[in-house]
Design brief:
CATH architecture of the largest domain: 2-Layer Sandwich
Oligomer: single chain
InterPro entries: Gln_synt_N, Gln_synt_N_sf, Gln_synth/guanido_kin_cat_dom, Gln_synth_cat_dom, Gln_synth_N_conserv_site, Glutamine_Synthetase
Pfam families: Gln-synt_C, Gln-synt_N
Number of domains: 2
Strand content: 15-25%
Distance between the termini: 55 Å
GO biological process, one term: glutamine biosynthetic process
Number of strands: 13
Number of helices: 9
Domain GS catalytic: 117-367
Keywords: ATP-binding, Ligase, Nucleotide-binding
Structural class: alpha+beta
Length: 367
């Protein structure tokens, strides 16, 4: 029997909702779950440890180690890698004073591992901090069964054409709302700046938005929101795909992106439209470079998605416009009308590294 010979139907979460057997969080001990990006640059790992008391600041969380040879980040004969805590959030799963701890990864010389792009991003954000860079990222994703088939799709066929699924209501068109609403509430309890959520164009596809976040906080919060999403889906017995265009959706279905909104204090001020339009030159100049870091495979993933169809631009050509979802960069109509606000970079893939994306946008426009 292969892994393709079984199905998972919603809601399997009923079997694991009370996973702690009614036990409340411990009155004095603290559980800290360290979360990190593995060697794929897109998957997350975690492990948990106990503290006798709650650390007061992020620097008080100790550096920990892990087996990098089992995460694609080291060889077996030199396998120890380090976890350096960079941000801590209330744990919505364990409750109490327990924490989720976002970490970056370091090698045996305490240098960033190959998939640790946070340190470089932090240096850029520190350099431009006086511009007050604000970000918001729109994370699209597909809920799939454990056989990697989209939730709500017939096992031996296709659903009705897209058109009725976007922001939909009803059991015949909105698939997996249990996961979506639980994730939303969990993010709120974790203290993340989750702005909203909605069903997307492809059946089984959803989106949530994280922001507004300033500087490096954007990458930290999006990665942690992804971790929470995978954990919630796990409880319901389903999986989350961040693939921008899975094989099953290669037909007339929208892919998944991670549209990134950006502004500076100058752009948000009266007359800021001039700064927004001026930013287009820098974004155009670095287009090909940006495309290589807007997904974790050097741009290969985005080639399946950015075809000029299904509300996307072409991967090989830079473009911008007002209210145009077929452009690389969209200026929202309200921004054009008010002559201030922000721009939306529609190129990043759903499986992008937000540290790389935000760093690239900042570099292109401000450095």
């Amino acid at each position: 029997m292969t892994h393709l010979n079984f199905e998972t139907r919603m809601p399997l979460g009923q079997a694991v909702i009370d996973q702690f057997l009614g036990l409340r969080p411990h009155p004095t001990k603290i559980q800290a779950t360290y979360v990190w990006i593995d060697g794929t640059g897109e998957n997350l790992r975690s492990k948990t440890r106990t503290f006798d008391r709650l650390p007061k600041k992020i620097e008080d969380y100790p550096i920990w180690n892990y087996d990098g040879s089992s995460t694609g980040q080291a060889k077996g004969r030199d396998s120890d890698r380090y976890l350096r805590p960079v941000a801590a959030y209330p744990d919505p799963f364990l409750g109490g004073a327990n924490k989720l701890v976002m970490c970056d990864t370091l090698d045996h010389e305490m240098q960033p591992t190959a998939t640790n792009h946070r340190q470089a991003c932090a240096e850029i954000m520190n350099e431009i901090r006086d511009t007050r860079p604000w970000f918001g990222m729109e994370q699209e994703y597909l809920i799939v069964d454990r056989d990697e088939h989209p939730l709500g799709w017939p096992k031996h066929g296709f659903p009705a054409p897209q058109g009725k699924y976007y922001c939909s209501v009803g059991a015949d068109r909105a698939f997996g709302r249990e996961v979506v609403e639980t994730h939303y509430r969990a993010c709120l309890h974790a203290g993340l700046n989750i702005f909203g959520t909605n069903a997307e164009v492809t059946p089984g596809q959803w989106e949530f938005q994280i922001g507004t976040c300033e500087g490096i906080d954007m990458g930290d919060q999006l990665w942690m929101s992804r971790y929470i999403l995978h954990r919630v889906a796990e409880q319901f017995g389903v999986c989350v795909s961040l693939d921008p265009k899975p094989k099953v959706t290669m037909g007339d279905w929208n892919g998944a992106g991670c549209h990134t909104n950006f502004s500076t204090a100058e752009m948000r001020a009266p007359g800021g439209i001039a700064a927004i339009e001026a930013a287009m030159e820098g974004l155009k100049r670095t287009h090909l470079e940006a495309m290589k870091v807007y997904d974790p495979h050097g741009g290969e993933d985005n080639l399946r998605r950015l075809t000029g169809r299904h509300e996307t631009s072409s991967a090989d050509k830079f473009s911008w416009g007002v209210a145009n979802r077929g452009c690389s960069i969209r200026i929202p109509r309200q921004v054009a009308a008010e002559r201030k606000g922000y721009l939306e970079d529609r190129r990043p893939s759903s499986n992008c590294d937000p540290y790389q994306v935000t760093a690239m946008i900042a570099q292109s426009i401000l450095l």
